[in-house]
Amino acid sequence: MLRFADGTQTAVVGLNEIMAELYSEGRQADQETTEEIINRLEKNNYIPSSYLTRKEYAYVLLQEYREYIAGRANANPNQQSIP
Q: 27 near 36, Cβ under 8 Å?
């Protein structure tokens, strides 16, 4: 479930799987990775094409991926984290 700044929530299909794949590929939490998440999500989810909406998605997804990385680092403290 993604939560936007205005309180809107939306469910997305496959987000955890996509983040796990990107993490295993060693992808950093950056704009390029965020665009890749959006591209992969669009295969099974509707993401509006408006520039503003995509920027909002990118912001929220970047935060989600950062949290995912931090969670992995906390679960495996001996494993090197990705910045």
A: yes
The whole-angstrom separation of Cα 18 and Cα 38 is 10
Q: pTM for the full model?
A: 0.86
Are residues 41 and 14 in contact, defined by beta-carbon separation less than 8 angstroms?
Answer: yes
Q: Which residues contact 30 (CB under 8 A, 6 or more apart)?
A: 62
Residue 81: is its pLDDT beyond 50?
Answer: no
Sequence-separated (6 or more) residues with CB below 8 Å from residue 40: 14, 18
Report the distance separating Cα 83 and Cα 3, nearest Å. Answer: 23
Number of Cβ within 10 Å of residue 37's Cβ equals 22
State how far the Cα of 79 lies from the Cα of 83, in Å rounded to an integer.
Answer: 13
Decide if 34 contacts 65 (C-beta within 8 A): yes
